[in-house]
Amino acid sequence: xxxIEAGYKKVYVGDAEEIARAVADIYAAILKAKPNxxxxxxxxxxxxxxxxxxxxxxxxxxxxxxxVTTFNLDEYVGLEPTxxxxxxxxxxxxLFNHIDVDPxxxxxxxxxxxxxxxxxAYDTAxxxxxxIDMQLLGIGCNGHIGFNEPGTPLDSLTHVVELTQNTxxxxxxxxxxxDEVPTHAATMGIKxxxxxxxxxxxATGASKADALYATVKGPVTPEVPASALQIHPCAFxxxxxxxxxxx
Length: 247
Ligand code: F6R
Prior knowledge:
eight-stranded mixed sheet; 11 strands; alpha/beta; single chain; about 250 residues; three-stranded antiparallel sheet; binds fructose -6-phosphate
C-alpha cells in the first residue's frame, strides 16, 4: 500500500482486497492484546470485503470474536431486525452469523424503539461496556459518518436523523423503489463515534473522492462530519485509488 500524507492524517491507499487484509490485521492486533475488546461495526457496501476476510480468518482458526462486545453505528427507523434491508439483518448475514461472536453481546440500534430513553441507553451501554476500542466507519458521498448528515453537531450522541434526499437516493439501490427507503435512521452521534479509542475509516470508489478530499484537506466542520477525524488522536484512513484520486 502507498501512503499519502494529507494534513494531519496519512491515507493508506491500496485496492479493496489489500485494504480488507490491512484492516483485518488491525482487528487481529486488537484481539491479540484484548480478546474482550469492544468493537464498533458499520454497514454498507464498503466493509463487505473486510467482513469476508474476517469470516475467512475465523473459519481458518486465525481469529476469534468469542469474547468481544459489538456496537453498530446505525439502523433505519421503521425496519424490524428481520427486514432484509435492516442493518441488523445485514450484519447477521454478512458477519455475525459466520463468526463466533456471542449474540448476547451484539448491539445494533433499534429501528423500532426510537424514544429518547432508548437512544440515550445506547450511549449508556457503550460506556458500561468500557467504551469502544475500535470503531469502523464508511463515508457517505456527502461526508456523513454513521448517518450523521452534514450539519449534525460534532457533540451529538445517539439520535434520530432525517436522511437527506441524496442519501436516500444512493441507498435506493438496495430497495425496490425510492419510496421504500426509510426517511429516518437512528445513529450514533459524532461524539459517540469520536469517543472510540481508535477509528478506522474506509473509502472506496470514485463517488467518495470529493468527500474524502473534504475529510482530510478541508476544515473540521459539521458540514463534513467525517472531517472530525482530523482531530481524533488515533484515526486511520484507508482508500482505494479512485477514492484517493483528488488528494
Ligand atoms: C453504515 C453507515 C454509513 C455508510 C456510508 C457508506 O453503517 O454508517 O455511513 O458507511 O453511507 O455506505 P457504502 O459503504 O454503502 O458506500
